[in-house]
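User: Here's a protein and a ligand (flavin-adenine dinucleotide). What would the complex look like?
Assistant: Let me lay out the input and then the predicted complex.
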Amino acid sequence: MSKSDAIIVGAGPSGLYLARELSKVMNVTIFEEDRMLGIPPHCTGLVNLSSLKVLGISPPIVNTYRYVRITDLSGNSITFDFRERTIAMLDRPGLEHYLADELGSATLALGERVTELDNGIAKTKLRQEAFDIAIIAEGANMALTRNLIPWKPTHVYGIQTDTKSFAVSELMPRSDDEIVVIFDRKLSEHYFAWIVPRNSHEFRIGIADDANVWVKFTELLKIINAEQSKPFGGKIIIGGSPSHVVAGNVAIIGDAGGFVKPMTGGGIIMGMLSAKLLAESISNAVKEGLSITDALSLYDALFRKYIRGMVKALGSASYILHMMINRSLGNIMQLMSKVNVVVEDYDNHIDAIMKAASRRPWQFIKALLAVVNELSLIEPGRINRLIKDTLE
Ligand SMILES: Cc1cc2nc3c(=O)[nH]c(=O)nc-3n(C[C@H](O)[C@H](O)[C@H](O)COP(=O)(O)OP(=O)(O)OC[C@H]3O[C@@H](n4cnc5c(N)ncnc54)[C@H](O)[C@@H]3O)c2cc1C
């Protein structure tokens, strides 16, 4: 039986980013059940460009955006102006390939599903691999996580397609740098729909909700006269948090550990940040002469001390907010109609909302303030200081 210092289950962005970092200090094998990286795709791929800089990566980008227009089906809207094209649509299989090219000494085992992690041994159909530590980065399906650290996230389902539309409609982006987000309970009861330009007349169009999403997706395409071609999507985690992210010598990162922005379910950056937090916990603990299992305990302690409470609170607030918006959405959209707000940073939604609040200080905007400060859930610049504080 062969042995790795660390095995990672799942080669999505979280697992690949972790493999890239850990391969600098230890012998790593990363298992991916699919034969091709990033296939089948499921994600829209929207991130803040500056978050990529923080993570030190520059993956391929499909398009960039300056404006986010939130609208309802009646045409009431509010536009957020980020002043520059600061939001990016990542090429999702492209992100995985970019990270895989940077794996260094790590071994990538494609087409191998890990079925069991037991007593320091990872089992696939093809082999058994012994390990000192295992990290589960299996995404939202959580088959292994469920047995190890049972927890129930709040989730919705998202379906989207890449398609052409020549429709002339208020709902369509006015330029190739504008994302349209449709909040309207006639379309999505508890979440929202999106129209994101890929290039001229080509769009990624999708919708998420907690029930009947296929019917709502078809309805959306009909409304904007777009054809359906190869739909894709999946489960979007939007809240909840496990009590621990470590059990024995196994840790969880990414979607499987609930590392997402509760407002939008965006987990690409949060997943890689959880990988960064774990990798830096390991390298700091090892520098302090601690064992590798102590390093995992450090990651767990950091999660419990600085992240869990916030993720849980934001998840619950976000859930309530979505319910609240649905109840009074028509009024809110009418009140806010045609407001244009200049903002700095897509991931730092709080700034956007602060500015909106200063223009129209309604109750619902105040509620938003509590919900939206997601990027600060794991502040990359503070990771080392938090580790030192926790070690002391
Ligand atoms: C419709 C939709 C739209 C989204 N849009 C955005 C967005 O615009 N921006 C954003 O930030 N996020 C978005 N997300 C969320 C984002 O896709 C996830 O947060 C992100 O992919 C999480 O990364 P991950 O590496 O944790 O998991 P994943 O990307 O899901 O990767 C997990 C990998 O593990 C593999 N795997 C699972 N089990 C095993 C096993 N037992 N053995 C081996 N391999 C296994 C899977 O095949 C997969 O490749 C969206 C999600 C959906 C569904």
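Summary: The two ends are 39 Å apart (CA to CA).
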